[in-house]
Design goal:
mainly alpha, Fumarase C, Chain B, domain 1, Fumarase C, Chain A, domain 2, 2 domains, three-stranded antiparallel sheet, two-stranded parallel sheet, about 5% strand
């Protein structure tokens, strides 16, 4: 995977996706002048002696407390140590690394007052794949993702832990082994590092990228289920969708039609099929999946702006030597985007589960009951459909909008918060649930198509079936089902199904 060059303020979505998937990161050296100017402006602000929030004052409710020049370094170290109060499971390494890259891209825009030394250490951690260990719980998504970002900042000053090739290592030890020195934070630097939306944004972007992959896979499994049920591709006719004018619907219909093109199974029932209309789970795929695509793209636009923005406080304007205190740390845009992604994950999984339920029901699919040649003696796909239903309902329970919640913090100084961290952090769990549901559909749809032999489906769908059959054989009699589910799930999760179809599918 090619290395990504971060151009602060102008990083495309595909670069963030690549970083999440493991690409190396380099910082565009052109940002050095703006960084230096910002740090010098902080020095001049300090020299004036006037109160400037977070530079020579306390934080939050303690903003009215002035701090003497002799204590400014201690002030910045104290805010990092005191705010590193996260709990719970650790953030996945790809998410924590993405968070580190987002912070680097933010502070390198020259509006945060950090020093070139701090920029260099952030770069070095990414280059050496030294990832701060970050507990995932503790942010309410306003005043910045304070607790998780404080754990990131703590690693930079040699406190806490760093993930080194999967091994949790004391931060000071990890830095020393890499030939790096812990930071001594200057005025404003601690606050700049732990103020911002990078934790919420990293989790939301991770959820978006996983939702995109499972969306594309569900188009493939949906087409395969249509084949298994000997459904019609007439609902995918472009003339239908052109009249609706919804962009995502048009693209989803095009994709489904292309996936089924050249199918001998479809050709076998083009004429004299007594069925007039397919159930909604087949017929309305373009409408449901297209709407999901449009919403994912809207969320992607919001997150793209956020990833390229500066969200700490106060912001430094070096041309006027001003430190302006505002509220860019409030993560409401990210909270809304995360809620939108959660809704799409629910619907992608829900529609896929309905197709599985249709396939196992002989009255609807025309296939043997529960997709087994010997129903009764064998249960076939009876319980995998139950598992899919359970996962869909679990996602429904997690999909309640986080953005409508708020709870006051910091002695009521921070009296409205976004809950973006909650909304974003659930997305990976929801995506894993949908991956499992779509994996079950992959198994069921392939099994259904087996009953139509010697007829075969289209070239891309047959390529997917061949891939699956290298991992999971046809189900003749009941066997231990769990390994089959895990194998199919892995093919969905790692993108192998999309790659096997060898078709350009719509994405964000």
């Amino acid at each position: 995977m090619p290395a990504v060059t971060l151009r602060p303020g102008d990083v495309p979505l595909e670069d963030w996706r690549a970083i999440y998937r493991g690409a190396d990161v380099r910082l565009d050296p052109a940002c050095a002048a703006a960084v230096a100017a910002s740090a010098e402006a902080v020095g001049r602000i300090v020299a004036r002696g006037e109160p400037a929030y977070g530079i020579n004052t306390g934080f939050g409710k303690l903003a009215s407390v002035r701090i003497g020049a002799e204590d400014l370094t201690t002030l910045q170290r104290n805010i990092v140590l005191s705010h590193a109060a996260g709990v719970g499971e650790l953030s996945p390494e790809p998410v924590a690394r993405l968070m580190l890259a987002l912070k680097l891209a933010s502070v390198a825009q020259g509006a945060s007052g950090v020093s070139p030394t701090t920029i260099a250490l952030l770069e070095a951690l990414l280059a050496r794949r030294l990832t701060p260990v970050i507990p995932a719980q503790g942010s309410v998504g306003a005043s910045g993702d304070l607790a998780p970002l404080a754990h990131m900042a703590a690693a930079l000053i040699g406190v806490g832990a760093i993930d080194v090739a999967g091994v949790r290592t004391p931060a000071a030890e990890a830095l020393a082994a890499a030939g790096l020195k812990p930071l001594t934070l200057g005025p404003k630097e601690g606050l700049a590092l732990l103020n911002g939306t990078q934790f919420s944004t990293a989790n939301a972007l991770a959820g978006l990228f996983e939702a995109e992959r499972v969306f594309q896979t569900a188009l493939i499994t949906g087409a395969l289920s249509t084949e298994a049920a000997k459904g019609s591709d007439t609902p995918f006719d472009p003339r239908i969708h052109a009249l609706r004018r919804q962009p995502g619907q048009i693209e989803a219909g095009d994709a489904l039609r292309a996936l089924m093109a050249g199918s001998a199974i479809r050709a076998s029932h083009l004429k004299d099929d007594e069925r007039v209309q397919d159930p909604y789970c087949l017929r309305c795929q373009p409408q449901v999946m297209g709407a999901a695509l449009d919403v994912l793209r809207q969320a992607a636009t919001t997150l793209g702006y956020e990833a390229n923005g500066v969200s700490d406080n106060p912001l430094i304007f070096s041309d006027t030597d001003e430190a302006l205190s505002g509220g860019n740390f409030h993560a409401e845009p990210v909270a809304f985007a995360a809620d939108m992604i959660a809704l799409t994950l629910c619907e992608i999984g829900s529609l896929a589960e309905r197709r599985v339920a249709m396939l196992v029901d002989p009255a609807l699919s025309g296939l043997p009951a529960f997709l087994t040649p010997k129903p009764g003696l064998n249960s076939g796909f009876m319980i995998p459909q139950v598992t899919a239903a359970a996962l869909v309902s679990e996602n429904k329970q997690m999909a309640y909008p986080a953005s409508v919640d708020s709870i006051p913090t910091s002695a009521n100084q921070e009296d409205h918060v976004s809950m973006a961290a909650h909304g974003a952090r659930r997305l990976l769990a929801m995506a894993k649930n949908v991956q499992a549901v779509v994996g079950i559909e992959l198994l069921a749809a392939a099994q259904g198509c087996d009953f139509h032999a010697p007829l075969v489906s289209s070239p891309p769908l047959e390529a997917v079936r061949r891939l699956l059959r290298t991992r999971v054989p046809h189900l003749e009699d009941d066997r231990h089902f769990h390994p089959d589910l895990m194998a199919a799930n892995a093919l969905v999760a790692d993108g192998a199904v999309v790659e096997a179809a060898a078709r350009t599918l719509p994405g964000v």
